[in-house]
Design goal:
5 strands; rod-shaped; five-stranded mixed sheet; 140 residues; Nucleotidyltransferase, domain 5; 3 helices; 30% helix
């Protein structure tokens, strides 16, 4: 008697679950993606050498690490924008042509600096300078 040998099918992978997962991931990424328009301006900044002239009268606004404000070394009673606007108006005596120098701690929250800039603009000043320090030279 001759027995028939059963044909063995080659083992294969079922790709259906893999395709389902890929489509679910595609849908997930499409739904959660946010589209933002970034505006990049090409700005050529001026170079400066030497020290600035000290003949320009300026008002110094200091933003400390905790987000508190001081005008020309006098600390404000609170960190409200309205207090800073009023302090700038009093300090300037109505002369909004004076330069305002914003000195902010490197560790301060960005919101405190933006609020200070907003207060300077609301007080009517048009000249704003942000104080920086020269980078330390690295010895390699």
């Amino acid at each position: 008697m001759k027995f028939r040998q059963a044909r063995r099918e080659l083992p294969g992978l079922n790709l259906t679950p893999l395709i389902d997962i890929v489509f679910l991931l595609l849908i997930f990424f499409m739904v959660t993606t946010t589209f933002s328009r970034e505006t990049r301006l090409l700005v050529s900044l001026p170079e400066a050498s030497g020290r600035p002239e000290s003949s320009i009268e300026s008002i110094e606004v200091l933003v400390d690490r905790e987000g508190g404000y001081a005008i020309n070394g006098r600390r404000l009673i609170n960190s409200e924008v309205e207090s800073l606007v009023r302090g700038l108006e009093l300090e300037s005596g109505g002369d909004v042509s004076r330069l305002v120098v914003l000195v902010a701690d490197a560790e301060v929250r960005h919101q405190a600096v933006v609020s200070a800039m907003e207060a300077i603009g609301r007080a009517g000043f048009v000249g704003l300078s942000i104080a920086t320090r020269e980078p330390l030279e690295r010895t390699e």
